[in-house]
Design goal:
- This is Oxidoreductase.
- Residues 6-317 form the FAD-binding domain.
- By secondary structure, the protein is α/β, with parallel strands linked by helices.
- The chain folds into three domains: 2-182 and 276-350, FAD/NAD(P)-binding domain, CATH 3.50.50.60; 187-271; 358-441, no CATH class.
- The chain is 38% helix and 24% strand.
- The protein has helices at residues 15-26, 51-60, 63-67, 104-118, 167-171, 238-250, 253-258, 303-318, 325-353, 361-370, 374-384, 398-409, 414-441; strands spanning 2-5, 8-11, 31-35, 48-49, 76-81, 84-89, 100-101, 121-124, 127-134, 137-144, 150-154, 157-160, 179-182, 187-193, 202-208, 211-217, 222-228, 263-271, 275-278, 282-283, 286-287, 294-295.
- The longest helix is centred in the last third of the chain and has 29 residues, at 325-353.
């Protein structure tokens, strides 16, 4: 068997893997990246990047290549629901005042090209099948190349950036989440040739009843339209996807008007049965950035930003200590702990929006107020862009004011409104307790994973 060594081997070269590879290489480490795909290659994704995500591309040095793809800069965010429309510009974050919606076939290729330009050895069409263990530590990987031959790479650190169905997570015994929440929504999305030039700088989302729909202009003159119905209304059959997609759009007047003169392009894609989660993401000689370790429902469009950011921060933490196993393990634990506490509030906020329900009276009051209050509209958007945590979205006292207004406007249905408000209070208390518990007790222990655990991927 052909064997070689590196400072780090990364399994997967999309957002998290490429970000880690770029940063490791920038810090002078020899990086080998193995990916079963061949680029350019598409993947299932809704691919919106808020300004903080665009800033991550710039931090990695990938932004010039991504901008060459031609996606329009989205300077305005729009949210509609309950008869109200909230429109606000993106505030600058690290001097970035726009969002981007770049199709993954171009985005991932740009990231891979940036990693190679930095000096990372990215190898396509390579399928990782086993991990190498030494004295209880992960010490490398074995893989099959394009000819079917087996080879191995030995390294002090294996980074599993191989997505929700991560082979690395399974082989280290970390594939079962310690925190998870099933989504109440399914995803139907497709592309349209965009005939609405006036909308090409606006990222829009509407809610109608239990449906949530978006229109994000992207590269090649297209607009991405995502519909998230309750899972009860979803159909896993590929034959039903296009029909249901068009029916859902027809139920949303504002979204249907946005797409009226647009032409569908390509097939409708679906995702049903999504679960948000945290997995243990570090151990002796291994780490799991991106969806391999943490995943959120796409309703808040946070996945790419988090993959880029925590792939980059993983490399920044690990690169200086790769030659010292004890210091490396501490750095990996600190990185994982930081990611959990940075991401937990948005994880909880996302789970609320993913419940697959109509807007609550409290949400309706928030839209009503924000539609006429630019400062409040900006604060709400700052939650989505990760500038402001969800618990700091509303100014002091406004939560109580909105609750009173919701009760007043819903006085014809006092029991329903009271029940909804009580549930929101209970959910908020539960989320605070979850964050308190996470801070107090830290990360859960690793599941036992005996040295030598290996096998072919599922």
């Amino acid at each position: 068997m052909r064997s070689e060594t590196a400072d780090v081997v990364i399994v997967g070269s999309r957002c998290a893997g490429a970000a880690a590879a770029i940063e490791f290489a920038r810090r002078g480490r020899r990086v080998i990246v193995l990916d079963s795909a061949r680029f350019p290659s598409d993947t299932l994704s809704t691919h919106l990047l808020w300004p903080t995500g665009v800033a991550e591309l710039r931090a990695l040095g990938a932004l010039p290549r991504v901008l060459e793809i031609g996606a329009p800069q989205l300077n305005t965010a729009l949210a509609g629901g309950s008869g109200y429309t909230v429109r606000t510009p993106f505030a600058a974050v690290y001097d970035i005042d726009y969002a981007l919606c770049v199709r993954r076939i171009g985005l991932d290729a740009a990231l891979v090209a940036t990693a190679r330009a930095r000096g990372a050895d990215v190898r396509e069409g390579m399928l990782v099948t086993e991990l190498v263990f030494e004295a209880g530590r992960v010490a490398g990987v074995r893989y099959r190349d394009r000819t079917g031959a087996t080879a191995e790479v030995l390294a002090p650190l294996v980074v599993g950036a191989d997505g929700r169905r991560s082979t690395v997570a399974r082989l280290v015994g970390a594939d079962i989440p310690y925190r998870s929440a099933a989504s109440g929504r399914a995803c139907y999305f497709g592309y349209w040739a965009d005939a609405e030039q006036a909308w090409r700088s606006t990222a829009a989302q509407w809610r109608t009843g239990e449906l949530l729909g978006t229109a994000f202009p992207c590269d090649d003159g297209l607009v991405l339209c995502l519909i998230q119905p309750p899972v009860e209304r979803a159909d896993r059959s590929p034959r039903a996807a296009a029909r249901l997609y068009r029916e859902f759009i027809a139920e949303m007047p504002e979204l249907a008007a946005r797409l009226r003169d647009c032409t569908p392009v390509g097939r409708v894609r679906t995702a049903v049965g999504l679960t948000s989660y945290f997995r243990r993401s570090s151990g002796p000689g291994w780490a799991l950035p991106g969806d391999a370790g943490h995943f959120k429902d796409p309703v808040t469009a946070q996945g790419i930003r988090d993959a880029l950011r925590y792939g980059r921060l993983l490399a920044a933490a690990a690169a200086p200590v790769l030659d010292n196993p004890d210091r490396l393990d501490r750095a990996l634990r600190d990185w994982e702990y930081r990611r959990e506490h940075d991401c937990l509030p948005m994880y909880q906020w996302t789970n609320r929006l993913a419940r697959g329900e109509a807007m609550t009276p409290l949400e309706a009051e928030l839209y009503r107020t924000a539609a006429n209050d630019p400062d409040l509209a900006a604060r709400v958007l700052e939650v989505m862009t990760r500038v402001r945590s969800p618990e700091r979205m509303l100014p002091p006292g406004l939560s109580a004011t909105l609750a009173v207004r919701a009760a007043w406007h819903g006085r014809g249905e006092p029991i329903t409104v009271a029940d909804t408000l009580f549930r929101e209070v209970r959910a908020t208390a539960s989320e605070r307790y979850e964050r308190w518990t996470a801070r107090r007790h830290g990360l859960p222990p690793l599941s036992p994973s005996p040295p030598g655990n290996a096998g072919a991927p599922e």
